[in-house]
Structure formats: structure tokens, C-alpha cells
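Q: I'm writing a short methods note and want an example of a predicted protein-small molecule complex. Could you take the sequence and the SMILES for manganese (II) ion and return the bound structure as C-alpha cells? Please keep the output block clean; save any remarks for afterwards.
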Amino acid sequence: MTDPPAALAYLGIQDPFEEAAVAVLPVPYDLTTTYQPGARFGPRALLTASHNVELYDEELRWDASRIGIHTLPPIEPVAAGPQAMIPIIADAVESLFHRGKFPVVLGGDHSVAIGCFAALSESWEDLWILQLDAHADLRGEYQGSPFSHASVMSHAAEHFECVRVGLRSWSAEEEEPLWRQPERVFPARAFMRNPDDAISRVLAVLGDPVYITLDLDCLDPSVMPATGTPEPGGLTWDAITTLLRAVAEERHVVGCDLTELSPIPGMIAPDFLAARLTYKLISYVFHARHQAGDSVPGG
Ligand SMILES: [Mn+2]
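A: Understood, no commentary inside the block.
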């Protein structure tokens, strides 16, 4: 499959793959969505909206697009279901790590992260996962599948240490695994009571390096209504960007996935927020590397 032209690429930029620090991988897959389907349309909506994102970050006073950004062809869904998707996603992400890229995987429902975790377990040791999510996603299986969006973090826990932020919905079954290490759990209500204090406590427990799995439903539906399962009482834009900036500056972030954008026809704000948040994350990570004197392409 050929790479998408600039008109379909993230930010409208299509730098040559070899020269790009960031590889954007769209995975328009939502076969495990249980409530409101539509996350399969997320990558396209995010990529389209991204063409309106300002490349100069007003907060960092820096243009991250100079690092080189390349958008890969989407991984098309396979009808065989979630289990069949995992090795396909894992192979694609693993090859990005091997080629020194910072992968940005765009879902799709959160189950696409299971493929990312499989790639991470092959590529990194002693890695920490920062989960931003409304839900614990710690079910052993859900609706007959252990590869559901509701089981995502059970897979992460097999290989990695996890810190969770934004949670506000979980089942009785998830109570025990969730609270095994209570200092690593930051429910949305407690987090939002004093975000600055919570962020310093996140940094006190979070190891290094870090992979970020960002389910957009961690945000409050008032700013991010376009998700498969919008839960009231989530994070604000200010809180999540402050957290991401702090983590990017204090840790080595190796990659991320951003999932569960389920576009609402006629409403562009959530699509734009998702596109902007993706760029914020990329900007924070590479600005921090640039400040640290790491060699950053074009830096
Ligand atoms: Mn989730």
C-alpha cells in the first residue's frame, strides 16, 4: 500500500519516512465497541481536522513539525475480529520502534492498544504505561472476548507497570486488580480536585521510560463528547495538557496511542481537540528532547 498524500496526512505534512521522527499510524477499527460505534471514523476525522492545527505551539513557542512527521497508510480492519487485528498492529508498531520512530497510533477503539502493548513487550524492558481513561479496562473478558476495549489494561498489566489517571467507571470484578497498588490510581474526581498536586504524585510513582495510552473518554464530555462511552466528570483540557507536559519533561516517552474518537456528524470541535491534543503530546515530547540537547531532526 502506498503512503497517503499530504492531503490525507496528519497536519497536511508528509515528510519522507526516513527523515521523520514521528510515524502516525491510523487504525480505523471499532469492532469491540459496546455502546456507540463510530471510532472507526476517528482517524479520518482527526486527520482532516489536523489540517487546521497551528504548527507553532504558543505555549512552548516552538514548531514541532520540524522534527519530521510521516503518516502511514491505515491498517484496514479484518473481519476475523479483534484477536486477528493484534498481531497486525503489533508487527507494524514493532517495525516503527526498530526504525527509531516515535509511533503515534490513532484508533479506532481502545482495543487497538493491545497490539501496541504486544509490540512494546518485544521492544522495551521495564517500561511503564500511563493510562488516561474513564474506565479501568481491567475485565478478564467482555462480551465473550478477552481482546475487547474493556480488557485492554489486563493485557498491559501482563508485561508492564501501570499508572492510571481519569478513571470514574469500573465494575466490581475490576476492584481488586485496580486497587492492588492504590498509589498508582488517580480517579478523575480526586485528580481534578487539585491537578497540580495530583501531577506531582503521578510523577512520584511513574517509572521511566513511559508509553502513553490515551483513551479520549478520560476527558470530560463537555469538552470531548465524541467518544463511544462518554462518562461525566472527566479531565479538562488544561489538566490533561499540564499532565502531559510534565510527564514529557520528566520522563522519556517512547510512543503513544490515542483512541476512541467517535465523530459526531456536524460537530467539528471534538475532532479538532483530538488533532490538537495529538500535536500537543508530540510537541511536549520533542521539545523536551530538544531542550535536553538530544539530537532532534531539524531541531
Ligand atoms: Mn479505555
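A: Remarks, as requested: The first strand starts at residue 22 and ends at 27. Residues 110, 133, 135, 137, 149, 152, 215 surround manganese (II) ion (CB under 6 Å).
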